[in-house]
Amino acid sequence: MSPENNIVELRGLRKAFGKKVILDGLDLDVPRGESTVIIGGSGTGKSVLLKHMIGLLRPDAGSVKVDGVELSTLDNRELTRFRSRFGMAFQEGALFDSMTVAKNVAFPLVRLGLGSEKERAKRVEECLALVRLEDAGAKLPSQLSGGMRRRVGFARAIAHRPEVLLFDEPTTGLDPVTKDVIDELIVELKETLGATVVTITHDMESVFKIADWIGMLHGGVIVARAAPGEFRSLTDPRVREFLGRTVGAHQTH
Amino acid sequence: MSVLPFEGFFREVGRFGRILWRVLAWTPRPPYDFRELGRQMVRVGVDSLPVVMLTAMFTGMVMALQTFNVLARFGAERYVGSLVSLSMVRELAAVLSGLVLAGRAGSAMGAELGTMRVTEQIDALEVMATDPVHYLVVPRVWATTIMMPLLVLLADGMGIWGGYLVAVVLMGANPVSHMDNTFRFMEVSDLTSGLIKAAAFGLLIAAIGCQQGLYTRGGAEGVGRATTRSVVLASIAILISDFFLTKLLF
After folding, report:
1. Is B189 on the interface with A (CB under 8 A)?
2. CA distances for B143 relative to A29, A241, B21, B116, B227, angstroms
3. Domains in chain A, please, with CATH?
C-alpha cells in the first residue's frame, strides 16, 4: 500500500507513565476512508493510542504522521487547527453538562466558525436525527441515559464533517439494541461521510460488523493486523486467546 | 519518588507560572467570551457577597469590642474608629475576603474543572479546536481578579459599620467623634493598597483553583483532592503573598 493511502501512520511509538510502559515501539497504518478497529484487553493502552493520533498525548519517542504531517512539529495553535479535521467520540460521551444537547452538538461548529446560526441549527438537527435523538435537543446531558449521552457524543463528533472519526469504546456496557444501533451508525457514517474511522473496543461482536481492518494491541505493540475474515483464522496464540476468551465469555451470558 | 527535596513544591510553582503565562497570552485573542466572563463575575462576586459582608461586619464588631476595653484603660477609646477602619482597609478586609473566596470560589473551580478533566470534557474541548485555558481559565481568572477589589471595598464599609455599631450603640461612644476618628488618619494609599492586595489575591485564588482542576487525576477521589488542594494552596498563597505585598506596598 502506498503511503498516500494511509491517513495516519504511527512509527516506533513509545509512551510511558512513570515507570509503566504503555506503548513500546508501536507501528500502525490507518488506511484512508476505511474502518480500522483496534482491539485489546482493558488497560493495554488503547485509549492512549487513540489520544496520540489526535495529539492529546505526545509520544516519548516515535512519530505520529497524519496525512503526511508530523504532529510533533506543530505548535499548539497549529495543532488546534489541525484537530478540526478530526471528530472524536469519548467513552462516556464527555458532554459539557452545563449546556443543552443542541448546544453541545453545535459546539464544534461555533468554535470553528462554521455556518450562520441558521445553518448551524439545521446541521444540529440533522446530526441528532442521524443518531435518532431528534427530540433531545433542549435537554441537558444529566437528563439522558448513558447510551443516549454517547449518541449525542457521536452527533457532536460528526457535526463539522471531519475526515477522521475516532471512537473510544463506543459500545462498551450498552444494551444489545443500542449496541446494534451504534454499530450500524458507524458503518453508515463511514459510507455517507466517506470518513476514515478508527474505533477501539474489546467488544468482538461489534468488531466484525464494523471493521475493514482489525489490529490487536498487546504488550505495547500491534501484534496482528488483518482484514476480519483473515483475522479469525490467524494462528498467533495471543489472538487466539483473545478471540477464545471473548467468545467464551459471550456464551456464558 | 522525589529526586529533589521540595520537588512537589517546585512542580506546583512551575505549573502555576505556566497557567498564569497562558492566561496572559490567551487574553487578547478572540473570540472574546464576555457572557462567560459576566457569568463568572456573578458566580464569584455576587454569590459570595452575603458571606463576605457577614465576615467583614462581625470582624469590625469584634475588633471594636476588643479594642474599646483595652484602649479605655489609658483613656484612648475615642481611637477605636481609627483602629478598626485602618485595620480593615489596609489588611483584614482583603485577607479575610480572600480566605472566604478561596473556600467558596477557588474550591468550586477546582471541583468543576477537575470533574471536567476526569470525565474527558477537557479532552473534548481540545479535540474541538478549543484551548481549555482560553475557554475556561481566562474568564475565571479575570472575573475573580475584577470582583475581589469590589467585594473588598464593600467589606471595608461593612467592617467600619460593624465597628460603629459596637462602639456607638453598644458601648455608648460619641457618634460624631467616632466617625471623625474613623477617617481622620486614613489616607488614599491605605485604601488602594488594600484593593491592590485584593486583586492579587483574586488572581491567586482563581489561577490556583483552575490549575488544580486542570491537573486532576484519578476519578472522584482525584476531584476531591483537587478541591481540597485548591483551598489549602490558595489560602497559604494568600497569607504568604500578603506579607510580601505589605512589605512592598508601604
Report:
1. no
2. 46, 56, 17, 20, 19
3. 3-251 (3.40.50.300)
